[in-house]
Every structure is written in C-alpha cells, then in structure tokens.
Amino acid sequence: MEYxxxxxxxxxxxxxxxxxxxxxxxxxxxxxxxxxxEVLVGTKHSKLKTMVACGQTVTLxxxxxxxxxxxxxxxxxxxxxxxxxxxxxxxPAGMTTVPGxxxxxxxxxxxxxxxxxxxxxxxxxxxxxxxxDRFTSGVVLIAKNRVAQGMIDKIDRKNFEKYYLAIVEGKxxxxxxxxxxxxxxxDSEIRRRVMAEGQNAITxxxxxxxxxxxxxxxxxxxxxxxxxxxxHFNALGHPLLGDELYGGSLDKIGRQALHAFKLKFLEPFTQxxxxxxxxxxxxxxxxxxxCHKSGKFEY
Length: 299
Prior knowledge:
- With 299 residues, the protein is of the alpha+beta class.
- The protein folds into 3 domains: 2-62, Roll (Structural Genomics Hypothetical 15.5 Kd Protein In mrcA-pckA Intergenic Region, Chain A), CATH 3.10.290; 65-154, Pseudouridine synthase; 157-260, Pseudouridine synthase (2-Layer Sandwich), CATH 3.30.2350.10.
- The chain is built from 6 helices and 18 strands.
- Strands 7, 8, 9, 10, 11, 12, 15, 16, 17 and 18 form a 10-stranded mixed β-sheet that branches. Strands 1-6-3-4 form a 4-stranded antiparallel β-sheet, with helices on one face. It has a two-stranded antiparallel sheet with strand order 2-5.
C-alpha cells in the first residue's frame, strides 16, 4: 500500500504532516521502529523527524497486512459501497459481525476477507468500524486497511452520522424527542440499564408510522453505548419488538426489530461525504405495508 501527501503548509516534520492528515500515533510509532513501513520525502528515504518544505511530497509505503488467524470464507455479501479504502455492506439479521469463541469461520469479517481475496487483495485485513449486534441488520462500515482505520477514528463525531429504524411497542407520547439518559450495567451482566452512574448516552428519534400497538421510529445516535437504542426505548416503556433481553414481545418477529438504515461520514482521504442508505428488511416491512411507487419503503 502506498499513500502520498503534498505539504501545503509551512515547514514541518514528516510526523507532523502525517498526524495532520489523520494518521494514528500508533501507526507512526510502528513506522519509527521499522515495523512494516517506510517514508519518502520526494524520492529519498527519510525519517519521521525529517523536515518537509512547502510543496514537497511525502510518501508512505506499508507492507501488506496479514492475519493468519482470520479465516477467509465464502458467503453472500450485499455491497452498498466500495472504493480503495472502504467497504460498506448490508448485514442480514442473524449474522455475527466478528469471530468469537463459538464461531470463527462464518462471520461477516470472514466473508469480507474471502471477498477481498477473490478480488485479488488477499493480504488485506478488514477492520470493522460500525459493529452491529448479531440480530441487528443493516449498514456496516469496514476499513480495508490499517491506515483507513486509524484515520476514521480521528474524524469529528459531528462528521459521522448513524441512523437506525426500529419498531417499538405502543405509541410514543411525542412524535419527536431527544433521549438523554446515562447507560451502565451492574457487575458483568449482559443487560444494560439507565442509571445515574452510567455513561452519557444521547438518542434522537422521529416517529415515522404507527399501526395498532406498534410504532416505526427513525433514530439518530449521538453516542455509541452498547445496546443504546434498546435500553433507551425500554426506559421509555416502549421496548423494541422481538427484543427478549429488554422485554419486547416475541410473538411478532424473531429478533429485535432494529435496522442500521443510514450512514453518512466525511471520508478522510478525499474530504468528501459518503452517504449510504439500506432499505428496511422484509421481516420489518411486514408491519407497515405502504411503499412508494418505486417499491421503496417510505421513511
């Protein structure tokens, strides 16, 4: 992998230029130690402390990544967006995102590694940026390399927007509201809850449709706490349909009715926004049958 930047500012070190362009301190420390990378100023091999004049180019060359413990597997992927550094897919409900003790071969990451290998990039290691619970469907952002992973982690949160669609039980008192309730857990229990000593958690929602005893809500996350949407709506007395852990009814759908619907972020290499939407899956659409003439569900 090779990346090149032009110093458009004043005289500075290679390290300062690379940090300004979003590279992680961890990656630069690896390069400084000579672990899998080299830097050139113009065409000359240089060190991170080398000074770079305005108009000079800095090129970063990295050895290909590899992770022999991550098994490449063949599986169906619905690709929503792809370029040199990013892959965005629609994860179906029921698919585990990353390998764990009980499943090391048939997760989303295994399938992505298999896809990259088939595409001729067998030495790339996928890095999950927006991880979803096993039974949550929808948009997942994946970095194809460690440079992209490090750069996306430094993006200002206001330039990284995540929206979900959820079906909750009952009819909410407000058509639109902010939920600002801290979330935590007791000891090592899986279930989270709203608690005064928890971490700051902010969720915004808009009711998009109502039918009988359920509501379709569009949700925007401002923080990323574990089970945040599920916990917040349960705290309002409107648990997600099918969410057994938080008291949702199981007689309508076989999983929590939660779908990662939309992702918008400032792409750090081009400084342009990437925006991707992912239609509501059939098991959630069945509760709200009205679609556009185009066949797309109206949100």
